[in-house]
Structure of Peptidase M48 domain-containing protein:
Amino acid sequence: MKRPVEVKFYDGILAEARRAWIVPDQQQGIALKLDEDVPAQVSDADFYFAYPDMAYIGGVGGRKPIIELPEERRIEFLSKAPHWLRIKYKDIYHAIWEFERSPILIFFSMIIVISAVIIILKWGIPYSAKQLAKLLPEQTLVEVGNRTEQQLIAQTQPSTLPAEQQTRLKTLYEQKIAVGKPAKIIFRQGGSSMGMNAAAIPNNTIIVTDELVKISGTDEEVLAVLAHEQGHLVQKHSM
C-alpha cells in the first residue's frame, strides 16, 4: 500500500480547498479521502478518479502542480506530484518545473541563449544573406545596382582627374585584376557624401572617388583598392 499523499482538494462547489489524501487505485487512477488527519489507509475513499479523466498541469514558478477533474473539481499538490502518478507528460512537466527553479541551470541556459544569439548575428545572418544573394536573379542585381549608381552619381560631382590617368588605371585594372567580366569603373569627386572612398555596386560597377586616388601614392595602391572592390562584386557582398 502506497503511503497517502496530502493534497488540497477543490470539490467544484466550495471555493475553499479541503485537506485530502490520495493513493493509487490499482493503477487505473487515484482514490481520494477527505480527512484532516493522516489516515492509516485510504479505504472507503470519498472519490475515485480514473486517469483518462484527469488533466495534469505542471507547476510554474511558485505554483504547484494541479490535476483538473470533471465537474470543475481540482487537486492541488503541496509539492511535486508523487512518482506513482501515471499521468501522461507528468515527468516532462516536472522536469521543466525543476529546471526553471534551478539557479545553476538558469545561468547556463542564459549562457547558451546569449551564445546562440551571438553566433546567429555574427555568422548565421551574414551566411544566410550571402546564400540569398547568390539566388537572386541577375536582372534583380542589375536593377538594384542601377538605382544605387544613380543615387551616388547624384550625390557626387564629375571627376577632375586627368583623362589619361583614368584610362591608365582602368587599363591596369582590366589587365591585372578583372577576371572574365571586368566591372565598369567610374571616377567621381566624393565631396561630403562619399569622401575618400570606393564602392562596389551590384550592377557590376565600381565607383572610386578622386580623393582616394589622390591620397594613394602609386597606381598599385589604387589597384589594391579596386581588387578589394572586385572581391565584393564576385562574392555579391554589395547586396
Q: What stands out?
A: The chain is about 45% helix and 20% strand. Residues 68 and 74 are 5 Å apart (CA to CA).
